[in-house]
């Protein structure tokens, strides 16, 4: 049977673009890709990249005070959102162009429209044309969801935060996950008065308790009004503002409310019903270790499969898919020991098990230190950092590393290599310290602070 393409990819985000370009450019497959929105997907257009640029922008506010403490005669000025936003848009346009060019230069045919599946080998584009393909790869990502409460339509999500006409004076951010915690820091640094509601007992559920405790403390020190055990009951418009009634009885007016209350996979409206592709409880596409769905010709990667929802993981899944299907080298995706960073202020970097997870598995020793780093301590700040290792008593392997510090994302990438290689505490110990840096503490932790 002949097909129009060897591979049809639905979705032009990090995972889809990588799979399409490698399949076409490196294996010679005939590949097409459909994207209804902008190329680059969540990460490039409305996620990691613009978020990180906003983190950078927001961090300059504190730097002026620190510079003064170091003797610089400079005065803080106001942050100009319009200037930043227009530069941000230019950068995103440039990056989208890069993504389009990558596809073009690798011979991938692109369709700037929505696509849905008609059968196991056929895709229908929104203009009605149908294309057949030997393999179909779904890489449609996810989208933010708002809770179903009265007035939820008045709130924005992370999709809209990059497009504000002006910065609000007072803002409420709801949620305690990555997105909420990153944006409270960003908006606070940009001069917005920020309140955060989180329904649970501590933000960043699932991460190491000590690490998230420090992040939460430092966020409050930075001026964020964090209300734990609190949720929005209902909201209504009041003039230019939004009146929010909270579960703790508070009633407050905000200029802007953002829900960062989780994301759902974009697996609906794809025509999957009736094809035999299995969907999970959250609506995610269920795949095996090779990203193959229950229909052999249909694969799915990235957030739409709701495995580990991170850009580099989607890219890995895309590469493994190409190895499996187009290089005859079946490659399961390795989801173990993924280092990751949360761009809160202070930043958190983590790899492996939290103390709580590790202790539930086996006896462990905890090595940790918390201190005031030289650079900010000199400037008179009370900010503390945390370096923490979780070590197996039986094997001496470092099972987890948790860093809360400026630059923790950069540090954890490198620690991640050692942990992935199975380094023991003694391997860390025989590594000579780099002095004077914060990360040297990771190789000079002599005594465990406790066993667990
Ligand atoms: P998360 O699932 O991480 O967090 C959602 C938060 O919203 C949780 O605190 C959750 O509370 C809360 N919540 C859920 N439903 C409700 C509700 N009805 N009312 C009030 N609160 C609610 O989602 P995010 O949106 O923060 O991030 C999505 C994914 O994006 C992450 O899983 C991550 O993989 C990825 N991401 C990664 C980043 C990075 O690598 N730096 C940055 C941003 C996103 P509870 O804890 O009680 O369930």
TrEMBL record:
Binds 1 FAD per subunit. The active site is at 435 (proton acceptor). Its cofactor is FAD. NAD(+) binds at residues 175-182, 262. It holds the Pfam family Pyr_redox_dim. Its EC number is 1.8.1.7. Residues 338-445 form the Pyridine nucleotide-disulphide oxidoreductase dimerisation domain. Gene3D superfamilies: 3.30.390.30, FAD/NAD(P)-binding domain. GO terms for biological process: cell redox homeostasis; cellular response to oxidative stress; glutathione metabolic process. FAD binds at residues 52, 303. It catalyses: 2 glutathione + NADP(+) = glutathione disulfide + NADPH + H(+). Catalyzes the reduction of glutathione disulfide (GSSG) to reduced glutathione (GSH). This is Glutathione reductase. It comes from Ruegeria pomeroyi.
């Amino acid at each position: 049977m002949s097909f129009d393409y060897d591979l049809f990819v639905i979705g032009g985000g990090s995972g889809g673009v990588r799979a399409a370009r490698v399949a076409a450019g490196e294996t010679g497959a005939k590949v097409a890709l459909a994207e209804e929105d902008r190329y680059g997907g969540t990460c490039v257009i409305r996620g990691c990249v613009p978020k990180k640029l906003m983190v950078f922008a927001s961090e300059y506010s504190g730097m002026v005070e620190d510079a003064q403490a170091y003797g610089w005669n400079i005065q803080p000025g106001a942050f100009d959102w319009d200037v930043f936003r227009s530069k941000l848009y230019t950068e995103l346009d440039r990056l989208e162009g890069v993504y389009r060019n990558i596809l073009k230069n690798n011979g991938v045919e692109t369709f700037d429209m929505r696509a849905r599946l008609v059968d196991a080998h056929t895709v229908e584009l929104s203009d009605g044309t149908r294309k057949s393909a030997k393999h179909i790869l779904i890489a449609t990502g996810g989208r933010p969801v708002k809770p179903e409460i009265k007035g939820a339509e008045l709130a924005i999500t992370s999709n809209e935060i990059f497009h504000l006409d002006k910065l609000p004076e007072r803002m409420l951010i709801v949620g305690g996950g990555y997105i909420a915690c990153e944006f409270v820091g960003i908006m606070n640094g940009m001069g917005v008065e920020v309140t955060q509601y989180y329904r649970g007992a501590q933000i960043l559920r699932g991460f190491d308790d000590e690490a998230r405790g420090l992040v939460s403390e430092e966020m409050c020190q930075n001026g964020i009004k964090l209300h734990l055990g609190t949720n929005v009951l209902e909201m209504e418009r009041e003039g230019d503002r939004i009146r929010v009634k909270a579960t703790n009885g508070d009633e407050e007016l905000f200029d802007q409310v953002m829900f960062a209350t989780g994301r759902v996979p974009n697996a609906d409206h794809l025509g999957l019903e009736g094809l035999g592709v299995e969907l999970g409880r959250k609506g995610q596409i269920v795949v095996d270790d090779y990203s193959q769905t229950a229909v052999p010709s249909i694969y799915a990667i990235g957030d739409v499969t709701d495995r580990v929802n991170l850009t580099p993981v989607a890219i890995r899944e895309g590469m493994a898919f190409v190895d499996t299907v187009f290089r005859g080298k079946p490659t399961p995706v390795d989801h173990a020991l993924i280092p990751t960073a949360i761009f809160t202020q202070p930043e958190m970097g983590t790899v492996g098990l939290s103390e709580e997870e590790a202790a539930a598995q086996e006896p462990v020793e905890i090595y940790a230190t918390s201190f005031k780093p030289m650079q900010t301590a000199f400037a008179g700040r009370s900010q503390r950092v945390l370096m923490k290792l979780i070590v197996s008593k039986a094997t001496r392997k470092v099972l987890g590393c948790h860093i809360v510090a400026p630059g923790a994302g950069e540090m954890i990438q490198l620690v991640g290599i050692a942990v992935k290689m199975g380094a023991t505490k003694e391997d860390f110990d025989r590594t000579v310290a780099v002095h004077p840096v914060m990360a040297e503490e990771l190789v000079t932790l002599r005594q465990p602070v406790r066993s667990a």
